[in-house]
Amino acid sequence: MKNIIEYVWLVPLFPLAGFLINGLLRNSLSKSLTGIIGSGSILASFIVSILIFLDVKAGIDGPVIVTLFDFISFQDVSIPFAFQVDQLSSLFLLIITGIGFLIHVYSVAYMHEENSSHFARYFAYLNLFVFSMLLLVLGSNYVIMFIGWEGVGLCSYLLIGYWFKNIEYSNAARKAFVMNRIGDLGFLLAVFWLIGRIGTVNFSEVFSKVDTLSSLDLTAITMLLFIGATGKSAQIPLYTWLPDAMAGPTPVSALIHAATMVTAGIYMIARSNILYTMAPTTQTVVMVVGLGTALLAATIALKQNDIKKVLAYSTVSQLGYMFIALGVGAYTGAVFHVMTHAFFKALLFLGAGSVIHAMHHEQDIRNMGGLSKKLKTTHLTFLVGCLAIAGIIPFSGFFSKDEILAAAFMKSPIVWALAAIGALMTAFYMFRLYAMTFLGKFRGTSEQEHHLHESPPAMTIPLVILAVLSFAGGLVGIPEVLMPDSHSLAKFLEPVFAESNRISVPHHPDHTTELLLMFGLMAVIAVVIFWAVGKYKKYEKSGEENTGFARILENKWYVDEIYEALIIRPVNAFGKMLGKFDNFGIDWVVNGVGRSVQYASRQIRLLQSGQVGSYVLLMVIGMIVLFALQVFLKK
Amino acid sequence: MVPVLLILIPLITGAALFAVKQEATAKSIALLASLLSLALMLAGMSGYIDAAQMTYDQPWLGGINSRFHFALDGMSQLLCLLTTLSFPIIIYSTWNNRYDDSNRFFGLVLLSQAGLLGVFMALDALLFYFFWELALIPLYFLCSRWGGERRIQVTIKFFIYTFIGSLFMLIGLIMLYFKAGGSFAWSDFLNLKMTSGQELGIFLMLAIAFAIKMPLFPFHTWQPDTYEQSPTAVTMILSAIMAKMGVFGLLRWLAPIVPSATFLWGDNFATLAVIGMLYASFIAMRQDDLKRLVAYSSIAHIGLMILAIFAPSYSGIQGAMIQMFNHGINILGMWIVVNVIEQKFGTRKISELGGLAQKAPVLTILLVIVALANIAMPLTNAFIGEFMMFNGVLGSTATKFGLAYTIAALVTIILSAVYTLRMIQRVFYGETNELTSKATDISFNVKLSLAIIVVGIILIGVFPKPLLSLTSEVSADILGRMNLK
User: Fold this and answer.
1) Is the residue at A179 inside a domain?
2) pLDDT higher than 90, residue A506
3) Same domain membership, residue A574 and residue A540
4) Looking at this predicted complex, what is its ipTM?
5) One domain for residues A484 and A584
6) Domain total in chain A
7) Which of A27, A380, B200, B375 is the most core-located residue (most Cβ within 10 A)?
């Protein structure tokens, strides 16, 4: 019997089939059938993914390449449509299909108000997204990865603009697509650069030929790929689309804009780890951008009042941490944080969705408060999510964040200190959010209060599962200093990062320092949490506007306004100006030349009166006759 | 015999249609004839017809040694397939459009098809010129008789432009005729010994002729006007197929014949192409008329093909070749949508539309897929062509500026997303207004036409192999003649 890994194409095939069925038959399927097809296809993928993962875990000799067919080939360049199964991709398969399945189930309940045709459209898009995301992580070369890369961007566009009647939503969708495209150019250019230099884009060949690339080439290629990552994974300067992307349905925010798609940049760099390890300049840039984004987004999150916006900026900030990890060469740490973040951020978004559902589409936390009494499951699971993201031991976020901070400390204590400040801000804004939503007294309308209800089991069961994962998910990566030899994730991923680890051996702080940093920081975080909860559970609506620095933060450092003034408006004005020039400039010259040349000539007048017309017609007829005669006479 | 039959079917039917008076009959005959050409073309390509039948060589005008010589190599097959595939779609998708004297309308349409097929198959310069004019002349009539309000003025501009272009081309071909010792044969034009001055002269004559046809910035100002004012069926012919005459001309009658001048002067044209791509993309962002939007978008897309040819490499040349086909069917899809909108609402102004997705979901889905091909999404046909062209330009050994060209040209794929998505948003999303609230979804003929195009877009996007194998030999041949790899 063939190995299950050979059937890896089944994993993306199920969602593709789900997309086609729900998409083509959207007018004839009942809602329950649509839900079963949509969720069932992901469940099938998840089961195959588990089998593949177990096979990989049992041991494989290097990556397994499964070639489906020849995609693009010219001259010596051959780009197969092929999948690569190894430790890294099999782990991502589990995250994508596992969390994807939970979110599909949750969506069945969350989207129940939609009519059956739109309901099916929603599930078709969601299935298409999972398909694209699977291509992205399974591709055995940069081109297949790019297909998935653009595919997830497209699905993100379609789902952000899912409620297409709302023009603001479709603006947000457009913004997301275009900003992603800017990054994609970097990705594409890197691909062309690779083809030009080494004639291949297949991972195994690229990584084995890495020695033949000059350091300039390596720096250029890695920088260009990183530009792609800043678009997809929402880093400075291309992060502003992600908060706007919250216009989409909340389960979409959980799946695409928190757990999976936005981590594509981290996956890509982790996949290309050897290139980055060989390009220290790029690594520094990655680290600085990650750090900058982590802090900038955290400051903005401090003053947001939309429950989803807080979570969105928190996502941007957490992605920044992952890039810090990549920048300092802690690839395992980055992947670890992708995983735990997927658990707790999906949990938080779905929890937020449950709140929004209960509050009848209210998203402003100033109008919430005291929800813990009515939404018991949502409240408890949300609290687990907050503790996990804040980094309280033994919740999962503690372990992954600690690993990143320890690696940052070895790079430079300053990086550690800045990242730690970000962690404190994270704890603060998350518990501000928690306290304003669930504690204190209810501040909404009495009608909202009357209708407050816990969500149905299809929504709360995924919350409970994710809460368990957010609590215990970190145990796969317990640091050496707490329990020797129990970082099973690092051991599992070892083959993927072996070459990088050989070149730049990762250092650890000595045990005393590490413990000191770890628990010192956690003590301060605990203090911050009590401060935030104490301050915001007494929150009253005052109607006062923020002033000074708080106002700048509330307005997100005015970055959108700056982009609007510096880029969008000038580009539009330039387009308008060129348009006028084309009509009155070049055309005027052309018409002028035409006028002066033709002025004295009879041609125009003849043409206008139709005489040239008949003359030309005669010419054509003459030609046809000549032509026909030749053909038949030569016989 | 295949080439001759391919030309004769539309030529004879076209001429005969002038005598058919009933409107419906004329339309049906035109559709049948175009389907017949398509069937013949498919039979020829699938190997049911003996390969020897794919060429035709007879003496023509003996006095000046011009031969009646046609052949169907990979590139010709691709473009003839595009032509024979496009015409039935054009006729069928605009089935409900009304024309006065529709027999003449369809007669001229078919005459133009005969001309186009001749252009793509001719291996004799005079024959090439003859069909070039045969393809163009019916369009002057179509545009001036059945066009929009400004049709006369616009046709004159179109006529002057293309007439000047044709004149240059004729001079260039005659110069080649004398250099080749009194032969019009394409094969005799290869490997001619010329001074650099002579070669430059011929290069400029031909390059300008083709540049106007494609069109290349700054020779493009006839194009948005003509696309806008022509009846949409004619705009389809102009943009889906006729624009490819110029690109085809570069690949068959310019680059292999005057390779060193192409090499020497390539950067000038490549620079113009890049400027034109950016220029047209910026303008497209601000257009309110759907037809002008697609027209400028087309200038940008064709610009990339020109760039890939003047900053040549194998990947770029082959990319340009298959992109001719892809762009042809994709822009046909765009025009079908524009035509439906214009027929339904009597306007093409983006600002007057909105909310169509609620009323016409099928149209919306099909349009979105065509639009995704327009912005070269992976797994659509255009991605394959653009990928190969960008890759080719960056890797071209013929120019020092490959990187600069690539980066500048890549900016246009951001802009194409901007203007294409803006159009989708303004026309299809949002709330309906008074005009669009009573809209209905598309009729069967439009659905079928768009569905065929969409299937083509995805099939080629996923399995580009057949197109690549079809064009690999002729691409390598052109590169070889330019002494490049």
Assistant:
1) no
2) no
3) no
4) 0.93
5) no
6) 2
7) B375
Range with the lowest mean pLDDT among A54-63, A381-390, A414-423? A54-63
pLDDT at A635 (0 to 100):
41
pLDDT bracket for residue A597 (50, 70, 90):
low
A287-311 residue pLDDT tens: 999 999 999 999 999 999 999 999 9
Residue to substitute from A117, A146, A188, interface B, most B β-carbons within 10 A: A188
Surface-to-core class of residue A95, CB atoms within 10 Å of its CB (0-12 exposed, 13-18 middle, 19+ buried): buried
**B residues 352-391 near A, CB within 8 Å?**
355, 357-358, 361, 372, 377-379, 384, 387-388, 390-391
Q: Are residues A374 and A434 in the same domain?
A: yes
Mutate which of B6, B154, B286, B374 to test chain A, going by most A C-beta atoms within 10 A?
B286
The pLDDT score that the predictor gives to residue A604 is: 45
Q: Which residues of B touch A634 (CB under 8 A)?
A: 58-59, 68
> Does one domain contain both A428 and A530?
yes
Q: Are residues A465 and A610 in the same domain?
A: no
pTM: 0.92
Q: Which of residues 215-274 of B touch A (CB under 8 A)?
A: 218, 221, 224
Predicted pLDDT at B485: 53
Q: Read off the pLDDT of each residue in A101-118 and give the average, rounded to a whole number.
A: 92
Mean pLDDT throughout A442-465? Answer: 90
Nearest CB to A574; choose among B137, B282, B428: B282
The minimal CB distance from A192 to the residues B152, B390, B430 is found for B390
**Residues A478 and A615 occupy one common structural domain:** no
Residue A274: pLDDT over 60: yes
For residues A568 and A522, membership in a common domain is answered with no
Asked if B68 and B57 count as a contact pair (C-beta separation under 8 A), the reply is yes
Mean pLDDT of chain A: 89
**pLDDT by residue (tens digit) across B10-57?**
999 998 988 888 888 999 999 999 999 999 999 988 878 887 888 888
Minimal-distance CA residue of chain A relative to B394: A192
Residue A227 lies in a domain: no
| Nearest-CA distance B465 → chain A (Å) | 7
How long, in residues, is chain B?
A: 485
Q: Which residue of A has its CA nearest to B296?
A: A579
Domain ranges of chain B: 258-485
Co-location of A471 and A429 in the same domain = yes
Cβ-Cβ contacts under 8 Å, B11 against chain A? 624, 627
Q: Which domain holds residue A463?
A: 313-335+342-544
Q: Which chain B residue lies closest to A168 (C-alpha atoms)?
A: B430
Q: Do B286 and A572 touch (CB under 8 A)?
A: yes
Q: Do A590 and B285 touch (CB under 8 A)?
A: no
pLDDT for residue A612: 47
Query: Which of A28, A72, A142 best tests the B interface by mutation, with the highest count of B CBs <10 A?
Result: A72
